[in-house]
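Marked as duplicate of an earlier ticket. Keeping the data here for the record.
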Amino acid sequence: MEYLRISVLVVLACCNGAFAQIQHGTTIVINKTNDKIMVAADSRGFNFADPPDDCECKIAALGKYTIYAASGAPNLKFLLGTGPSWNSSEEAHKAYRSLISHEGENNFASMVAKVWGRALAFNWSIAYKHDSKIVLRASDANGGYLVRAFFGWTDSKGQNLVALFTEITVDPKRFPIILASDPTEDTSRDFWTLGIAEMVNEFINPKSEITKLERAYQLTILSTNPPDADIWKIARYVQLEITYHVPGRGPTAISEIGGSVDAVTLTKGEGVRWFQRKSNCPAE
């Protein structure tokens, strides 16, 4: 009987590591103009130990006037009930619904981002107490942060168009160990990438033959003044990253990014309009 009890404990201890699924590997491209914000993302959910899932909804429309996207390790799932589980997109929806009565206020996006950040910091704190190694491994895999999130918002009257960024980070040397940064605007730029974006940057500043050919192709397409040209270009950058990215574990490894590209436009005063969206991803 004693041997059986010890064996069960060993199995559960192994489950804490082997049965924790932490999504990582994402490409998100964001562009803000005077009247709109455009966001595109890949669809691959890549866990440390499992085959990739190309049905992830990495962009979320929170109602008609708010959008959300996140890179890093936004979702965590302990199998067999061995630990906490959550989906950061669902947490964004929860934060939005809890504040819906404030949607017309100028700081609405910041309010939603702060509630989301507190929820994610709490979730990751529970996970850290449960198994600190898993949390630290997720942070290391994402360059020192757990989740990097974007919130875009406009009001129905078209007076505001806001792009906010926030991060969830871990540092065992400080208190609290898990921290959500204050949501902030980056007014120095109007183009951002989250997650894996080496090839996006190469194609934006073409030097090699293949990037110059891509630039020529884009100019040919855009010279016809097609509808949705701006969001098409943002989605194209994500597709290029998927096509040319070399996985961190070598060219023959399964890529951390992939699947179809979802893309959405948030227009000032008008709200959300999807350019491309998988059928399994909700419109709002």
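See parent ticket for discussion. The CA atoms of residues 200 and 237 lie 6 Å apart.
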